[in-house]
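To: structure desk
From: M.T.
Subject: fold request, one chain
Message: Could you run this one when you get a chance? Sequence is below, nothing fancy, just the single chain.
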Amino acid sequence: ASFPRAAIQLALSSRGAMNSKLTHRLLPLSEAGVAEAGDCLEAPRGLFCLPAVVNIGVQKAGTGELQTWLGAHPLMLAHGGEVHFFDGLRPSAAMLRCGQRQRTNLRQRYARHLWHRRPLSRDNVGAAASSAMAAGAPLVRRLAYEKTPAYFDLSNPALLACAVPRAELLVMLRAPAARAISAYQMCAGHIHGKWCQASIDEAIGSALTRSASGSVPRLRRRHLSPQLKRLLTMGMYSAHLHRWLEHFDAAQMRILWLEHFKSEPFECMDAVQRFLGLPPHDYRASATRNEKGLWVIGKSKSSSERWDKTPPSPEVNATLHQFYAPWQRTLAELLRAHNLSLLPARPIPG
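Reply: Done. Structure tokens follow.
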């Protein structure tokens, strides 16, 4: 779709002509080494934009829904789908040092990977000439956005920081026990993986153990499939966020909970827009309620999930909550210390 020119006027009138969050450069591909998050690189065979916003996780926490809502904003350029660039990247020591040569190469590879199946043009990125830039480079007034929830626990944050050090990160979380249950149900009922053929009670019962009666459950160290281990450790949110905070400033990152998004989507989108520096978009004009009574934009991804969602037994559900309870306490402390919550007045689900 072409870029709506009215949206440019909205951005300029609402935020000013040189709002840094809404103004990026259109550069030759050869200048990738000096490109920033949100800049677009132009080559003879196409145009490739580095994302200004990256949703890094987590799986089964509504990242697809958020992408749909953000994609409805006229100043957002949502990639669509999942990119899976950094979670499949095995870096060399030289790449991790992030010298000029490595940085240029990584940015070119990342931008090309993002858009190789969706060609971009100057029109649909909102490029417009401007004399306000000293170099005379055309300006891009649309924020490129990608989401890959596997980045949260599988990618090396240093690589994303090398490619787009000034990108803003969105993290969608979900009550960890509910997220783990949902992920296992999807594997058992939809993916049909070998590691999730047992009932959820059997799987969780075999993965978590107690050293004594009444003690906090712990992960078994032996005879645990890598997939089940990942499913459970993904909910140790504070441990993963610490990794990201070693490479990104806390001011660049915000946390949004699926539970809040379901109950208060318009308040959540207002907070997201403020964080990203976007002029407000009237989401109420295009949102509708689905069969579950939830506000959605277009067709909700969750409405197509038809697999069996038999819940675990009360005992296993309680065990999962007990397992995650210490991690939720450290997460609450981390969110307060770094002001990471988009809706800080709301209690974290849990």
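Reply (cont.): The first helix runs from residue 5 to 15. Let me know if you need anything else for the meeting.
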